[in-house]
Amino acid sequence: CSGKGLCKNRICQCAPGFSGPSCSEVESLCEDNCSGFGKCKLEFSFDEEQKTIKAKGTCECDKTHTGKNCLKSICPSDSNGKVCGGNGVCDNLQGQNVGICTCDTGYLGVDCSEKEVVCPGITPCNGHGTCFEGTCVCNLNWSGLDCSVNGTTSHHLKPVNSSASCCPRQCSGNGQCVACVCNCGPEWTGDDC
Q1: How far is the C-alpha of 55 from the C-alpha of 44, rounded, in Å?
Q2: C-alpha angle with apex 178: 172 to 182, nearest 5 degrees?
Q3: β-strand partners of 99
Q4: How far apart (Å, rounded) are the C-alpha atoms in residues 104 and 98?
Q5: Nearest CA among 123, 132, 159, 164 for reference residue 143
Q6: d(Cα 111, Cα 167) in Å, to the nearest integer?
Q7: Which of 153, 145, 139 is nearest to 184 (CA)?
């Protein structure tokens, strides 16, 4: 009986958790088969009164899940219940049943549910501006989509994006319209440059 049952009259009487003619087929004794996030550990005992083998199953959860049936993630989930927002990997903090999400490139936040907004430049806006919702707002005397154009060498700037129509007088042709604000070139000032 494969060591998982008793043989009576040449017929295997399988212990709980096993079935088949030779008791070699495993049935799960663990709740929800450990939800796919753990392994079912079986413990056997012999009942002297009933002359039967008893089996008990307990889940041994993987390092990123916990609970009786291993269904609870140790990492945060997004509002749809996806662990790490479906955009990252759950990492265990030294076996403490506490986890953190390591987000995929382009995502951030505790649960990796926030899309990262990236501005152009070697560093965002090349260190010469502020990234605002994916658009560079250049510092004084700097211009260009990535704030790489030094204003002391460029005297006449053209609007470079579709938001140019929201700036007063389209920055009079003397500045760059970014997020509906004129970023004036050198020697030009005012709301409309």
Answers
A1: 4
A2: 35
A3: 92
A4: 20
A5: 159
A6: 37
A7: 139
pLDDT at 174 over 70: yes
pLDDT of 166 > 70? The answer is yes
pTM above 0.85, yes or no: no
Q: In this structure, are residues 147 and 182 in contact, taking their beta carbons and an 8 Å threshold?
A: no
Are the C-beta atoms of residues 112 and 104 closer than 8 Å to each other?
yes
Positive or negative, the CA dihedral 71, 61, 45, 54 is: positive
CB 42 within 8 A of CB 71: no
Look at residue 96 in the predicted model and tell me its pLDDT: 66
CB 99 within 8 A of CB 112: no
Please state, in angstroms and rounded to a whole number, the distance separating the CA atoms of residues 129 and 30. Answer: 58
Output DSSP code: residue 122: T
Average pLDDT over residues 112-124: 83
Q: Look at residue 154 in the predicted model and tell me its pLDDT.
A: 40
- How many C-alpha atoms does 27 have within 13 Å on its Cβ side? 12
Burial of 62 (0-12, 13-18, 19+ CB in 10 A): middle
